[in-house]
Amino acid sequence: METSSTADSWVQRSLTIRATPEQLLERWSDPEVQRAVLHDRATLVSGDRQQMVWSVRTHGDRHVDVRSRQVEWNEGRSVRYLSEGDRDLRVESELTVTPGPADWGTQASLRVGYSLPGGVVAETLAKWLGSAPELLVSTVLHRFKALLETGEFPTLERNPSARDNDDNP
User: Fold this and answer.
1) Fewest Cβ atoms nearer than 10 Å: which of 31, 101, 116, 134?
2) Helix or strand holding residue 162 (H, E)
3) Residues 41-77: pLDDT tens digits?
4) Crossing angle between the packed helical segments 31-38 and 133-150, to the nearest 10 degrees
5) pTM for the predicted model, two decimal places
């Protein structure tokens, strides 16, 4: 397993989830769970718990394929992935779990590191991450928590009080 990091920038967010460390790591390693928590950011093309291929949509309806592989598994403690795409694009992610406060649930920390190599790939990654990488990592972790604790994500999609853009002044 690889242990060195080449990421230029890191973002980390943590929260407590009502599940055991083993449940969190098993579910995080499930490609379908990752597909669900990444939602509209990337499309799962193929994969299993060890390797996945994602299609990341960029501006102009272009796509960049990213290959992700599990590079480290520490039973009951953490799982780490390395994702690589065209032109030296690299994204690392690690989910670390520890006992939650007052023995309530598990503290989950998601740490994401990325390198922006420049050019079109850097532009693609910047658009994928959005203007605030912290927000993306936080959103992914909150969606993961919701999925584990309730089996679904909060949404206004079928809420009759949700407004269409045409209704807003």
Assistant:
1) 101
2) none
3) 788 899 898 999 988 766 666 677 889 999 999 999 9
4) 120
5) 0.79
92 with 11: CB under 8 angstroms?
A: no
Angle at 54 (CA atoms; ends 59, 88), nearest 5 degrees: 75
Closest of 101, 56, 65 to residue 86, by C-alpha: 65
Residue 152 CB neighbour total at 10 angstroms: 9
Element housing 85 (H / E): strand 78-85
What is the separation, in whole angstroms, between the first and last Cα of the chain? 54
Q: In whole angstroms, how far apart are CA 88 and each of 19, 67, 76, 125, 148?
A: 36, 12, 31, 12, 34
- What DSSP string runs through 53-95? EEEEE-GGG-EEEEEEEEEEEETTTEEEEEEEEGGG-EEEEEE
Question: Quick check: helix, strand or coil at residue 116?
Answer: coil
Task: Look at residue 69 and give its three-state secondary structure.
Answer: strand
Contact (Cβ atoms closer than 8 angstroms) between residue 114 and residue 125: yes
Which residues partner with 15 through β-bridges?
A: 108
What is the rounded CA–CA span in Å between residue 137 and residue 157?
A: 22
